[in-house]
Specification:
Layout lengths: L1 H4 L3 H15 L8 E6 L15 E9 L4 E14 L4 H24 L4 H16 L6 H7 L9 E14 L10 E4 L2 E3 L10
Parallel strand pairs: 3-4
Antiparallel strand pairs: 1-2, 2-3, 5-6
């Protein structure tokens, strides 16, 4: 099938995006989820390494007037089995660079001016990304400048590495479904 699509990184990228979105179709109750290409985000406009996707998960906590926002960076690889080790290390490098960038931008909102500027940028990103239900829009308005809600950002990393050359068993990883394994790169990390 891959040969019929043609050679090149574009097809590999497109197919890996499709597989990742398909594997992550579940919706988490009472959350707002947004998928973005990191290449399109202002926060990643440098020439440094960066991951492929940003999966934003917004959990409003009405009782405490708080937003828990998970910024999950996802690096995608569609590779031949022979390059698995090298490509997995490269994915981790890209994810680490991406988390560092997001932590610089959203990790420390020390002053009200910092908070307002960063939230306005974040809000614009969210509004340009997809359509929202009327209920979601009520929450989204609280993510703007001058909000009195508490906003907490959490940063996560996920590498989705797809091997197209042949079936293989990864004994050091958890089997999710046939051909679908899960592993953690870092000790104590919650695996996605």
């Amino acid at each position: 099938v891959l040969r019929s699509l043609g050679a090149g990184k574009f097809m590999h990228e497109l197919l890996s995006i499709y597989l990742t979105l398909k594997n992550n179709q579940q919706t988490i109750k009472d959350t707002i989820q947004i998928w973005s290409a990191c290449d399109e985000l202002d926060w990643f406009r440098t020439k440094s390494k960066r991951p492929d996707l940003l999966h934003t998960i917004i959990e409003p906590d009405l009782d405490n007037r708080k937003f828990n926002i998970t910024l999950r960076l996802v690096e995608l690889k569609l590779i031949h089995r022979q390059s698995y080790e090298q490509e997995s290390k490269d994915a981790l490098t890209q994810l680490d660079a991406g988390v560092e960038t997001l932590q610089k931008y959203f990790g420390h909102l020390d002053t009200m001016l910092d908070k307002d500027n960063r939230l306005e940028s974040f809000y614009k990103h969210l509004m340009h990304n997809r359509a929202y239900t009327s209920e979601e829009l009520i929450y989204m308005r609280q993510l703007r400048m001058g909000t009195d809600w508490t906003i907490e950002f959490k940063f996560e990393k996920q590498a989705d590495v797809y091997v197209y050359s042949h079936d293989d068993q990864f004994v050091d990883k958890k089997l999710i479904t046939a051909g679908h394994y899960q592993g953690c790169y870092e000790e104590g990390q919650v695996c996605n």
